[in-house]
Amino acid sequence: MKKKLVTSALPYANGALHLGHLAGAYLPADIYVRYLRGRGRDVVWVCGSDEHGAAITIRAKKEGISPRDIIDKYHELNKGTFEKFGISFDYYHRTSEKLHHETAQEFFTKLYEQGDQFEEQTSKQYYDAEFNQFLADRYIKGTCPDCNYTEAYGDQCESCGNTRSPEELINPVSTLSGNKPELKETTHWFFKLDKHQEWLKQWVELGMLDGKKHHSPRTWKNHVTGQCMSWLNDELLPRAITRDLDWGIPVPLEGAEGKVLYVWFDAPIGYISATKQWALDNGKNWEDYWKGDDTELVHFIGKDNIVFHCIIFPAMLKAYGDYALPVNVPANQFLNFEGDKFSKSRGWGIEQHEYLEEFADFPNKEDALRYALTRNMPENKDADFKWDEFVEFHDKELVGNLGNYINRVLVLTHKYFEGKVPASDTNLSEKYAEVLELTNALAADIESFNFKQAASRLMEISSWGNTYLQDVSPWKIYKAEPDSPLIAECMYISLQVVTLLSALTEPFIPFTSKKIRRLLNLSELQNGDLDTILSDLTAGKALIASEHAVAQPELLFAQINDRKDDSRKLIIERQKAKLAALLALKAEEEAAKHDPVKPEITFDDFTKLDIRTGKIIAAEPIKKADKLLKLTVDLGFERRTIVSGIALQFKPEDVIGQEVSVLVNLAPRKMRGVVSEGMILMGEDKKGNLAFVGAPEGFGNGFGVK
User: How many whole angstroms separate alpha carbon 186 and alpha carbon 253?
Assistant: First the structure.
């Protein structure tokens, strides 16, 4: 059996993590790794804080503190939050550690010494003299040359969506100081990604590596291979791997003072340094998990990191030599929150540590969230977290299905057999048949990264137990025949299924699994125990022995929509009220952007206006009138001359052919010697920008606007 090395994207130590992060790269990996451990596989799961980069430097300068202050705060916060949610990394490292610096520098040096992996490029980049720093593209704003949007970033305009370079912006300014940046010459090293294009394409598209089958591309998610091929079918270009910064890993070359390794280059190497530290602490050889044919590498990430983990990092590993490449990168899509993207600046969403604080009095809050996120995991498309769905998953599935079943079984065991597993000579293989089929399907789902479906199958097994218990109804048999062997058989089978569930729940809801094991008076699960249980299930053997005493029943979960106790419901209602307040504030802010509504009119007042569709067929300026254009408008039934005050924003040649709406029964008015026979309708924003209001092209002229 091959070793498994599992990684999760290193979270950036510049802020707290929200629920979307948990659902994206950490919870799915935890389910997968817990399952592998249960099956007795040799698996190591590493992660850690990504602690370099311009964003941390810039934030530190703005706040007047050191980068170390920032990374220490958020490393501890995120690491502690992961632990509270049961995210069971084997090692959680830091890229600021000495071992990581040494590993990343050695990696760079090995590639540099090959002589054909890097190239030097000298160019001019924007520089903020006040902050003494070269500016990343996102830290430059200006006016978009395509749409005149004044808040366009140096890499993309968020108004028209066009990508660009910072030098194309009109009137660029630094977002740090607000000053106009200067262009300053600098030299950097670039990784020749284009050198690796052909083998990368074979590897992603066909699963072939050096002429041998490496992995099955059919097992990769469509959006992963799709995004990769969109890059690989185009021309790959050399990519900068150094930056001008004073915070990061120094470039280990003479003449490279003031330059550090670009964060995208050093961060994935963090997987290697984390494995090294784990190996040092546990007396292992880290190379056993990174090199050779006896290991398999799997990256858990969000879709925004696909290119880094499927193209750039694999190219780095292969260029270095000897390293294993990932056999799968099961990237999740994005989780939204109540119909919108998570946004810290707008307060939209909830961060992981905030959930733990605000749900402090909510029983089994960690597993309640883990389960809801798993059942709504964005595996193949974006998903949306909703509090109402959280309640439904909790009350219907965790309480009404799983919790109800286990509680009923334990209650009846105490009622009929003094809390001991009864003896029965029933044929377990025959009774296990359907449960075994569901269990095998659940295992296959986990191994193929279908965690959402696997969680659903877990509930199907619990549902099977509920249905079986209800069909036999031992309480009815007891009334007529207290000593009937059917009662013992029913409770014996039911306790076997509860024991199975105590193990199958562990990857998904580990805190609940421990509680079920305690209620069964069984020891906590160890590595390999799930494999033993599944082997016994397949062989038709008992999973819990006759005469074994179980504990008194306790509720695993407390219902949210409880008529007698509304404390849990109030917690949810507070969350929903917080969002409602944010929506109301947003509505007020939007309303403030627009002019107030004019005094009320009647329908009869409106019908007096005769508004028609038309098209501008000629336009010319009016002498000594900078604001006015003389327009000829085709109304279908006639042509009219209209004087319009739009000359400051529109040139005559640009408006010809423009579809418009015209108020045609406005009394004629003479302006600058020209009689205007109507009015063009325009939209106007707060900044005074104008936009034509017209019918779609081809609609026709002269038709009424009603």
Answer: 15
